[in-house]
Design goal:
heterodimer, A: 314 residues, alpha+beta, two-stranded antiparallel sheet, B: 210 residues, mainly alpha, Rna Polymerase Sigma Factor, Chain: A, Arc Repressor Mutant, subunit A, 2 domains, elongated
C-alpha cells in the first residue's frame, strides 16, 4: 500500500477494487492497519469540525420559485436560442464571409505589391540615370552599343567606365526571377565570351532594362544619343515582351503585369507610362517610326531595344 | 394523483444527466424540480462551508439553479452533471463573496512552512508522527472552532479542494473537472491543505504552551 493510497483511503477516494485490496493488506499487516487508522484520526482531527449542516426548510422550493419568477419576466438572453441546429445555410454564409474577407484583403495586398515593384523599378532606373549622366558628361554621348552586340552591352560599358556602382540597378526587380543574377565581366572578357558563347552573354543581360540605341542622321549614319539632345528623349525603360523569334510584341512591358512601364528620360526623371506613346514625334517607345526595333529615324525618334537583342537587327 | 406519483417515481430513478437533457429539450418542470431537490442538501452544505455564511449560501444556491435554467442550452449530452453543477455553484459563490466584499484568497502560494509539494510519505510522517497530535489539548467545541477557523484561513484553492474531497466525497476526476486542473494538481493541493493545517495546528500548540 503506497503512501498516496493511504491518504486516498483516509479520504475515501480509493475506487472499489483498490479499496478491497488495501483492506486485505491491512488485515494481514497490523502495523499498517495501525498507521492508516492513526492517519485517518489525524486527518479527521485537523479537518472535521463535526458540524452537521442542514438546508433551511423550503430551500429547494424557494430556488424553484426564483426560477419560476424569472420565467415570468423573460430577459434578453432568454430569447437567445438555447441550441442552434446545424444548417448548411449557416455554413454557406460563413464561407461567403470568409471568401469575401480573403478577396477584400487580397486585392489591396496585390495592388500594394505591384506598387512596391513599380517603386523599386523606378528607383533602379533613377540610379541608372545618374550613371548614364556621368558617362555622357565624360564621353559627350550616351553609351553607343556596337552593331551585332546585344543592346545590354551598355551595362558593360558603364561598368568599364567606372560609372556603374552596382550592376543590380540595370534590371527591374520585378523582372529578375533569379536573385543570383550573374555578374558582368569586364569589356574584353565580355567580347571573348560573346564570340565563344553568346547564350551565356544573353543569360547575363536577361532582364536588364531596354536601352536607346541612338538614331540615324539623314546621311544614314547611326549615332548615339548626345549628352544634351535637342528634345527630351527616353533613354531606358522596362523591356517589352518578345516572342521566341525575337519579335517585339504589342502591349506594355510584362515586368509590371502589362499595366505599363517605367521610363527613364535624358533629364534623369523617371515616369510611369500606361502605353508606349511618347509624343507625336515618337509614337512607340519600343519601335522606331518605321515600326522596327532599330535606331530612330531622326533625332526625336527613340527606340528602346530589349537588352538581349543584337543591334544588328536595326 | 396517480399520474403525479408516476412522474415522481420516474424522475427518482432517472440519472442527473437524463433529467437535465430532458429539461433542456422538453422543458419538463418535473425534471428540473427533481434535480433541485436531489442536490438541495449536498450543494447547500458545500456552499455553507465554502462561503462560511449560511444566508449567503442560500442566495448562491438559488442563483446556481437559476443559472442552470438559463444555461441549460449549453449542457452537452453525456457530460456529468455533478461537476458541472459544482462548477456553476463555485463561480456563483466567488462572485457573491466578491460582491459582499469578502474576496476569496486566490493566492496559490502555499509553499511556505512544511510545504505542500512534499512527498505523500513525508506528509504521512508529519501527520502521524506526533503521538498525541498538536490539537490534543483542545477539546470539544474549542477544537471544532479552531478547525473551522483554520480551514477558513486556507488559501481559496486549497480550501475548495479540501471541502470537495473531504466533505463532499467527490472523486479526484470530478474535482479536477470542477476546478479545471489536472488530477495531479488536485492531489498536490490536497496534500498542501493538510500540511498547512498541520503547520497551523503546531504553531497554535506552541502559542498555547508559551
Amino acid at each position: 500500500m503506497t503512501a498516496q493510497e493511504m491518504l486516498d483511503y483516509a479520504f475515501g477516494l480509493l475506487d472499489e477494487p483498490r479499496r478491497i485490496t488495501c483492506e486485505r493488506e491491512m488485515a494481514a499487516d497490523p502495523a499498517l492497519f495501525q498507521r492508516v487508522a492513526r492517519l485517518g484520526v489525524s486527518i479527521a482531527t485537523l479537518v472535521d469540525d463535526g458540524e452537521v449542516i442542514e438546508p433551511p426548510t423550503g430551500l429547494a422550493v424557494r430556488a424553484l420559485a426564483t426560477v419560476e419568477r424569472r420565467k415570468q419576466k423573460p430577459q434578453f438572453q432568454d430569447f437567445v436560442p438555447t441550441r442552434v441546429p446545424f444548417r448548411w445555410a449557416d455554413v454557406a454564409v460563413a464561407a461567403t464571409v470568409f471568401f469575401a474577407s480573403i478577396l477584400t484583403l487580397t486585392v489591396p495586398l496585390l495592388q500594394a505589391r505591384a506598387k512596391m515593384g513599380q517603386t523599386a523599378c523606378a528607383f533602379n532606373l533613377g540610379k541608372l540615370g545618374v550613371s548614364l549622366a556621368k558617362y555622357s558628361s565624360t564621353h559627350g554621348n550616351y553609351p553607343f552599343v556596337p552593331a551585332s552586340y546585344p543592346v545590354g552591352t551598355y551595362g558593360v560599358m558603364l561598368q568599364e567606365s567606372s560609372n556603374l556602382p552596382d550592376p543590380s540597378i540595370l534590371a527591374c526587380p520585378s523582372a529578375i526571377r533569379n536573385q543570383n543574377h550573374p555578374p558582368l565581366p569586364d569589356y574584353d572578357r565580355f567580347r571573348r565570351l560573346l564570340a565563344e558563347s553568346p547564350k551565356s552573354c544573353n543569360a547575363m543581360l536577361e532582364g536588364h532594362f531596354a536601352y536607346n540605341v541612338g538614331y540615324r542622321r539623314p546621311s544614314g549614319e547611326a549615332v548615339p544619343v548626345p549628352e544634351t539632345p535637342a528634345s527630351l528623349m527616353p533613354i531606358a525603360s522596362d523591356g517589352p515582351a518578345c516572342d521566341s523569334q525575337g519579335q517585339i510584341l504589342d502591349g506594355n512591358s510584362p515586368n509590371h503585369g502589362g499595366h505599363g512601364q517605367n521610363v527613364l528620360f535624358t533629364d534623369g526623371h523617371v515616369s510611369w507610362r500606361r502605353n508606349r506613346w511618347v509624343s507625336d514625334l515618337d509614337r512607340d517607345i519600343f519601335l522606331n517610326n518605321a515600326n522596327r526595333p532599330a535606331a530612330g529615324l531622326h533625332s526625336g525618334d527613340s527606340a528602346l531595344i530589349p537588352s538581349v537583342m543584337p543591334v544588328s537587327l536595326r | 394523483m396517480m399520474k403525479a406519483l408516476g412522474v415522481v417515481e420516474e424522475t427518482d430513478q432517472t440519472t442527473d444527466e437524463v433529467l437535465l437533457s430532458r429539461y433542456r429539450d422538453e422543458g419538463r418542470t418535473a425534471d428540473f424540480d427533481a434535480l433541485v431537490h436531489r442536490y438541495e442538501r449536498e450543494l447547500y452544505r458545500y456552499l455553507v462551508r465554502y462561503t462560511g455564511d449560511a444566508a449567503l449560501a442560500e442566495d448562491v444556491f438559488q442563483n446556481t439553479f437559476l443559472q442552470v435554467h438559463l444555461k441549460r442550452g449549453l449542457y452537452e449530452d453525456g457530460r456529468p452533471v455533478r461537476p458541472w453543477l459544482y462548477s456553476i455553484a463555485t463561480h456563483q459563490a466567488v462572485d457573491a463573496l466578491r460582491k459582499s466584499g469578502r474576496h476569496p484568497t486566490i493566492s496559490l502560494d502555499h509553499r511556505g512552512g512544511s510545504g505542500g509539494d512534499s512527498e505523500p510519505s513525508a506528509l504521512i510522517d508529519l501527520l502521524v508522527g506526533d503521538a498525541e497530535g498538536p490539537l490534543a489539548e483542545l477539546q470539544g467545541e474549542e477544537r471544532k472552532e479552531w478547525v473551522r477557523s483554520a480551514v477558513e484561513k486556507l488559501p481559496d484553492a486549497l480550501k475548495q479542494t479540501l471541502i470537495l474531497a473531504y466533505f463532499q466525497d467527490l472523486k479526484y476526476r470530478e474535482i479536477a473537472d470542477i476546478q479545471k486542473i489536472p488530477v495531479g494538481t488536485v492531489k498536490s493541493r490536497l496534500h498542501a491543505a493538510l500540511a498547512k493545517l498541520q503547520e497551523m495546528a503546531k504553531s497554535a500548540q506552541h502559542d498555547g504552551s508559551e
